[in-house]
Write a structure and sequence with these properties.
Elements lengths: L4 H7 L6 E4 L9 H5 L7 E7 L2 H4 L1 H10 L5 E7 L3 H7 L7 E6 L6 H14 L6 E7 H17 L18 E4 L12 E6 L2 E8 L1 H11 L4 E7 L17
Helix pairs in contact: 4-5, 5-6
Protein name: Leucine-rich repeat domain, L domain-like
Amino acid sequence: MPAHFCKILEKISIDLEVLEIGDCKCLPDDFPMYLKKLINLRSLRLINCHGRWDKFAMEYFSAIRSLKKLKNLELVNIVFNQCVKEQLEQCDGITGLLIIPAIYLLELANNNCHLLHCLEKLSKTLKHVVLGITHGVLQIGNLYNVHKVKNHHNLGYIMGGETRKCEDCIPILRSKILQPDPLDLRHRVTHKDKAVDVQILTVSFLQYWLNSMMVNTKCKVIKIHCSEHDQMYLSEHFNDL
């Protein structure tokens, strides 16, 4: 990232309507301050929102909310933790949203839960949503699925459906019951000798659930290769943004 990057942005802030940042973890600490000056920005795309970026996530979202003309937001390879959830939920001026969650093994089920709760919170204002699920996330989800099959008898839980096929498993921490919630999505896994509720969703069911919950929003759930996460754009999937 050029040292004079922010100064360049400041000079063109009056006219800039579309901005894409290819590696947010390399941005200077004071970048959110400059972002606020892009008052005519209509579309913002941020890639690799993790690492150093996490430290300034609140400042970034504060800047995003200050941009009154901003309608389309794309967050690519983002760790969707509690802080991101709470901040993004307040961005009710955004009408088009693309999210591709980063692979974060230890908190994957929890982060996926944060993401779905956030989308539910924004369902009244979002008009277009693209959720990109990488094959890396699905492979980790398959580990949950295999663990479920191996341990469900010991846990005393009877599954109501067949095992999910490989690379079609999305683990979600069950902090609340998703509606509709078929019986064959319920199971338990064991983590650190403590029973933790986790449900496995297929990609097709996640699409169905989003359509049911976000009735006024056009939603797409798309499986992508990890190497392609920075090649997916919101505008490729909707022509009425």
